[in-house]
Write a structure and sequence with these properties.
The chain is α/β, with parallel strands linked by helices. The chain has a single domain, classed as Ribokinase (UDP-N-acetylmuramoyl-L-alanine:D-glutamate ligase), CATH 3.40.1190. The chain has 11 helices and 13 strands. The strands form 2 sheets. A 9-stranded mixed beta sheet has the order 5-4-1-8-9-10-11-12-13, with helices on both faces. A 4-stranded mixed beta sheet has the order 3-2-6-7. Helix 5 links the parallel strand 8 and strand 9. Helix 1 runs parallel beside helix 2. The relative contact order is 0.14. The structure holds adenosine-5'-diphosphate.
Length: 297
């Protein structure tokens, strides 16, 4: 079982010829509304792979909240842990120009109201989870409460996105900490070395039991603090169409396979296939593969 604790957002996307500057109004395409948010993305990705998956999160009592609940349920995610109300559903307002560059405003909305008390209330769901996967689009206090509430035999997968300074006890609970290059550099600051192997060793020095660094088209690097040297895992070569949500698919796949008993390098080898499959189609949740498709890549 995979339990995801995290955000759910409606992504509101408008294509524009040129992104507006201060005080400027531009006309854009019809609005496209997509289910998103890192927590909901991970939950949908894990369920599509065949994992028994639940989400703990919060949406508003509004049309965007219903869209998110519908997409989670359609993918087979257990939504008993998704709380409704307290604020409008989180949204990301995204403008994209013809070159693919975008400008994004995120309104966290209900995600910012997911509280430590909500984690306490999710105790029965947590008690059943083998792997718990979370990110930082919910309050850091809530992530810290989750760390304190984890059953002793549950494994925590944390993707610190958007990057923020992490308390030592949160870092120490990660197994693994999953970062892209940008997040690795943020956490390491001036201590970042020149190679991903050096980043991995630097990150392990901060306390997590293991570290996985995603490297885009180059795949990923897995470093288990218990078993030694970082291992590079190549990605299958694919034609990238849209990388939105690829990191979330990667992390969900990693969490699922770790929960099934794979070692870190083995789970990473599966996760790069899922990440690569997710970049071959448009969108985030719409692009997530079944396990069969990921293996066939
Ligand atoms: P993020 O999307 O969080 O910035 P990455 O760009 O490192 O993270 O991508 C996450 C994962 O998605 C990679 O480890 C890889 O599996 C897959 N991926 C991303 N871009 C590509 C690509 N161009 N070709 C193949 N796989 C990719």
């Amino acid at each position: 079982d995979v339990l995801v604790v995290g955000s759910a957002n409606a992504d509101l996307v408008i294509g524009v010829e040129r992104r507006p500057g201060a005080g400027e109004t531009v006309l854009g395409s019809d609005l496209a509304t997509h289910p998103g948010g890192k927590g909901a993305n991970q939950a949908v990705a894990a369920a599509r792979l065949g994992a028994r998956t639940g989400l703990v999160g919060r949406v508003g009592e509004d049309a965007h909240g219903r869209l998110l609940l519908d997409s989670l349920r359609a993918a087979g995610v257990d939504t008993a842990g998704v709380l409704v109300g307290g604020a409008p559903t989180g949204v990301a307002v995204i403008t994209v120009d013809p070159s693919g560059d975008n400008s994004i405003v995120v309104s966290p909305g209900a995600n910012a109201r997911l509280s430590p008390g909500d984690i306490a209330a999710a105790g029965p769901l947590l008690a059943r989870a083998r792997v718990v996967s979370t990110q930082l689009e919910i309050p850091l206090d809530t992530v810290a409460a989750l760390v304190d509430a984890l059953p002793p035999d549950a494994r925590l997968v944390l993707n610190p996105s958007p990057p923020a300074p992490l308390p030592d006890r949160v870092l120490a609970a990660c197994d693994p900490l999953v970062v892209n290059e940008h997040e690795a550099r943020f956490i390491l600051g001036d201590a970042a070395g020149g190679t991903p192997e050096e980043w991995a060793r630097g990150l392990l020095g901060l306390g997590p039991r293991s570290v996985v660094i995603t490297l885009g088209a180059a795949g990923a690097l897995a470093a288990d603090g218990r078993t030694g040297e970082p291992v590079r895992v190549a990605s299958p070569a694919v034609t990238a169409v849209d990388t939105t949500g690829a990191g979330d698919a990667f992390t969900a796949a990693l969490a699922w396979r770790l929960g099934r008993g794979d070692d870190l390098a083995g789970a990473t080898g599966f996760a790069v296939r899922v990440g690569a499959a997710a970049v071959t189609a448009r969108g985030a949740q719409e692009s997530y593969p079944t396990a069969e498709r990921a293996v066939a890549l």
